[in-house]
Structure formats: C-alpha cells, structure tokens
Amino acid sequence: MPKVSGWIYTLEGFVEGTVHFEEGHVEEVSHRREKNPLAEGLILPCFFNAHTHVGDAIVLEEPLGSLEEIVGPPHGLKFRRLNEAREEELVGAMRRMLDRMVLSGTSAFCDFREGGVGGANALLQALQGSSVDALLLGRPASLRYDREEVEALLEVAAGIGVSSISDWDYGELTKLAQHVKRAGKVFSLHASEAHQEDLDLVLDLKPDFLVHMTVASQADWQTCAQEEVPVAICPRSQVFFGRVPDIPGMLAAGLNLLLGTDNAMFANPSMLREIEFAYQVGRLKGGISPDAVLRMAYGGAKLLCGSHSITFQEGESSTFLVLKAPMGGDQCYQAIRAMETDILLLSIGPRLWLRDRGWIKRT
Length: 363
Ligand SMILES: [Zn+2]
Fold this sequence. Notes:
The protein is of the alpha/beta class. Helix content is 34%, strand content 26%.
C-alpha cells in the first residue's frame, strides 16, 4: 500500500508519522516514521482557497488604474474583457487557473463567478475533468434583483457572491439576499475594501461570510467575530491597491479569517504564495504566527459542508501534499516558506502526482 512519511499537520501542530493510502482514501495513520515511503517531508491537507475570481484570468494586459477602473462593475476593465470574451476563451482561461491551483496544492476553492447563469455555466464547464472542487457563488448579470434569474442561478450554483453594498441599490440587494437565504444557499459579499461601509447594513443581509474588511474599524471586526461571520482576506490583492490588511488586528479582534487569492489578473491562485505573503504582511502590523497563517489556508473548508477534510483519519479522502523540508526546526515556519517546486507528492482523492527528475507528474 502506498505511504508517505514525515511530519503530519494537525490543528495542534505537526506530529511525526506515516500516512498509508489507497484508492483515494486514507487507510491508516501511524505515529512513527516508516521505511520506503513514496515521499518524505511535511504532510499537509490540500489548501482551500477561500476567495477567487478565476474568470479574471481573461485579462492578459497589466491592469493599470484604480480599483474602480479595474474591477468596478459594470464598466471596469475586467467587465469589459469578460463581456468581449468568447465562451471558449473564458473557459480556457479559467481552466489554466484550475490547473495552477491543483499543481500548487489546492483541492477546493470558493469562486465569485460573474456573468449570471451563463457565467456560472462557463465555470462548470471549466471544472469538468478537473481535480479541484469548487464552491461556486454566482451573481446576477446586472445590479438588479430578478426572481427568475436568481432561481435559475441557484439551480447551478451553491449560492450568490456579489461585489458590495456600495455598488447596489440596497433594496434590490436585500431582496436578492433574502431569496438566497430562503433557498438555504450561501450568500456572501465584499465589504469595506476601499472605504468603510455600514456594517449594520451589511450584516442585516445575513451573509455566510464577508470578503476583505480591510478598512473596517476594530469595532466592526469585533462585531463580525461576535456574530460569527468569518472574513476571507486576500493580502496580495489588497496590497496591489496600496492597502495593507491588519491581520494581527483582525485576529486580536477574534475574527475567523479565511485566506483567498482574489482576482486572477493580480495574483495567481497559488495558496503557497498567499500564505508566505500573509505572514510577511502580518509582520508590518506586529506579526502573526506561521501556525495562524496555515489555519487560514484551511478555514474556508467548512464552507464546503464538511466535504473537505483537513484531518488525517482512516476512511477520509486522501487529499494531501508532501512538501520537501529540512528535518528539524519549526515545521509550521518551513511550511509557510515552501514553494511550488517543493511539492514532492500530491494526492487528490484517487489522483496522484509525483515529482520525478524535477517535474511533478501525474501517475
Ligand atoms: Zn473579490
């Protein structure tokens, strides 16, 4: 039976051991090193990318200008490119992102997919045959509530993810949010990204989680923590627009933080890069522990209704990666400094990739 050996990630830290797996499942976990493993190093669950816009991969030029000019609906650069794109171009661009996710150790992600029902279907098409799993949050094609359109969207999507209360007429957005919640689906939106928004209005929409909250106040973060509303943060995309998220401040307020890579045109969807960057940006505001950063890379997994396990237990899906790491030292710190070429082995259910002469290859 195939096995990997070394240091196994747990929420309490890394422990020495060996994971035996077969046909897409963990068969046995022992707490000792065993001989002749397929790979040896740091053994971690695959990452959950909590916030993406994979469709933005359609933008190939350098995005110049303000947040509004680049990603603001409905006339920002990304929306112009999305509207011009042929469906096969869009599907191809998204597939490139999904491949990058897999080869950088991500097995699931939550995407805010623009473009109404057609946009959601394009992502479903891109996902066919892919190893990565998606929590697809669609959005109406325009900034208007249309009951029939939302019903059609919720047929194909896990929920709805919109831009922000600043872009919408609040009455229309309330109707949209209420519809999604009545249907028992996920509702989420960006909040306080470029300027502080009224958190009471945001929370009245009963979001399952928020995105960014970069320029929110400490009191807002505390309110989200009390209301148990998690926040997906995307440090690289925020710094792209000159804003440094205060990750230590957010954690001190008790926020449940999830890590995401955001717009595919600014930041590639590698969680390894986002993890390293989050740690470094954290130091600008007082510092965060490597362990806290790693937790964020798995926090979003709960959004997938428990289907994305982050523990190594018998019978669970064998969804993990093995990172090359020097023996000794702080394993969490080694993990957050790892890069894509340090992935020695990748298992996503029944699919397996192994590094061979420098290249990671599917077996
Ligand atoms: Zn976003």
